[in-house]
Write a structure and sequence with these properties.
Elements: H1 3-33, E1 37-38, E2 51-52, H2 55-70, H3 75-95, H4 101-117, H5 129-149, H6 156-174, H7 178-198, H8 207-222, H9 224-227, H10 240-244, H11 246-262, H12 274-280, H13 285-306, H14 312-334
Antiparallel strand pairs: 1-2
Length: 340
Amino acid sequence: MKLEFYAVYFLTFVLSFLLAIYGTPMARQAAIKFGIVDRPDGNLKVQRDPVPYLGGLAIYLAFLLALSLTFTFSYELLGIMLGGTIIVLLGLIDDFGVLQPEVKLIGQIIAAFVLIKSGTMIYLTFIPFWLRVFLTGLWIVGVTNAFNIIDVMDGLSSGIAAIAAITLSVVAIGNEKTTVAIMAIALAGSALGFLRYNFHPAKIYMGDTGSMFLGFTLAALSIGNTVGSYTKTNYFGFIAPVLILGVPIFDTLLVMFFRFRKGISMFHGSNDHFAIRLKRLGWPVRRIVVASYLAAAMLSAWALVLIRVSYLPYLYVCIGLLAVVVAFIAFMLGRINVEA
């Protein structure tokens, strides 16, 4: 890798970070001026005072402006930008409180279709084309909503998104996917700049605009034909993106399971998130968020190891142990009473 590429990586990160640092207070002031705030309701929204939205707009603009100054766009990656823009507009309308969940889902499917049409698709040669299209759409829509679902605590979604973006940039650099690496680095810088104001106690929330944009972009960048091959060393490498995005995926599956048991729609809010369950145990917000960061970092590190290890018996043991640990954590979280 030539030295000038690393200079571009560094410049992109610094630009996106500084643009988010500069733009987030402006977005906060605009949200306050127009009354776009999240008001406490004593149930799921337990902050002491109303907190302005529109932080997601600052993330998106910092990401877009940084890339505009450092990036040469390709057809495929323009598809990511177009799909991401559709998601931002959907989230912005939703943050105004005028978008029905079903309409939002349809919009996400359209954005996923745009992405697939541009050539971004899961490539597993042992499955037919129609199934690859379906799995790609499911992955895009699922991860988009996973980051939306996990955004229930100050700094949680933005910090985990930054960790995932940094990890994907490492994978892309290893696969010599320079443009993808730059996009991932820009996303990480934007998320970290926003985190300066979103960490507990949050001065601004990203809203659906930010959480869905982060989820959509990370889902797109994590797909194999975008970021490069995960399976050069072993076939288990296809699990890597699931690990990199493991924390929001885990929370989504956990919430889906408990809401299904209660007969609650997935479109209906509840206290079933792992973060809220830990809070019921008496954990302070910062401890929960930092522990989540550590879990995301550990899963990302394991993903980087997974795509490079060729000794299969070692992989069998590690994957088995990881599955046991995740199941145990889910079981213990399920024992926490969130109804009290």
